Amino acid sequence: MKLKELKIANITVPIPIIQGGMAVRISTAPLAAAVANEGGIGTIAGTGMGIDELKNEIRKARRMTNGVIGVNVLFAVKDFANLVKASIEERIDLVISGAGFSRDMFCWGKETNTPIIPIVSSAKLAVMAEKLGAAAVVVEGKEAGGHLGTDKPMKDILPDVCKAVKIPVIAAGGIIDGKDIIDAIKLGASGVQMGTRFVASEESNASDEMKKLYINSDESDVVLVKSPVGLPGQSLRNSFYDLVESENAPKISNCTQCLKRCSHSFCIMDALVNACKSGDPNKALIFSGEHVHRIKEILSVHDIFKKLLSEVAQF
């Protein structure tokens, strides 16, 4: 089977793959640019970055590619509006957002003709997003890594969303190989978003320790953690997770009030930043998708695309 190009508003890419925006600082310019250079949509994770830092990452990515670059910012962060507006000022190609729902971001997008793509977990929310002006929606199921908005599998949600809206629908959660891509497209998706597969890439900013945990994991290692954001987070079990579950996580010594609402059970920004730093992975929250155990090697983005397209061609 040959994949069809992905069209979102005034943007067209030859390969219908969006790289997920993994925060904090896992998805930076090198990863996003590498994906864009392969014909997909590369995404910079703006969550946890300062305004100037995010602008610099966008500019860096622009120097590395002529392809399509997006920014992902979680609605839950306090600086959400400023980060999205800064991205638009830098003429980002599109904005993706999850962990909550902003009506205002559609107005900001309309003012500059910037496509806005919310992450949704139901047909009802997808319809609302379309009415507000969404250029597309990402349908994320329980298989995804990071913060989850549903306990339902993506394949149970996707068909209903595809029937309910006319805008492109992007499938996300649990997509690792070419067969997963084909399965999603057969259910009606216009394309897919892949996060976990790209964490285990050479261009990912994840630490070597985190990448090793990915390729050495098995199904039983994937757990749900109680995030201070107020949503469950899918991650890999490690000593840090055990501390959180036993309510013995490190106390917050210097709260920067990065979230709109926070339970203060632990500092999620510190825990996620530690995932991209070399050192002790047991001080880090290791977000990952449900099917991480199927990834057995760290590849370049080029080789990941080559492998995916080869697998797709078999169907």
Automatic annotation (TrEMBL):
Q: Which keywords label this protein?
A: Flavoprotein, FMN, Monooxygenase, Oxidoreductase
Single annotated GO MF:
nitronate monooxygenase activity
The record's listing under InterPro entries reads: Aldolase_TIM (IPR013785), NMO (IPR004136)
Which superkingdom, per the lineage? Bacteria
The record describes the protein's role as: Nitronate monooxygenase that uses molecular oxygen to catalyze the oxidative denitrification of alkyl nitronates. Acts on propionate 3-nitronate (P3N), the presumed physiological substrate. Probably functions in the detoxification of P3N, a metabolic poison produced by plants and fungi as a defense mechanism.
Indicate what this protein is called per its UniProt record: Probable nitronate monooxygenase
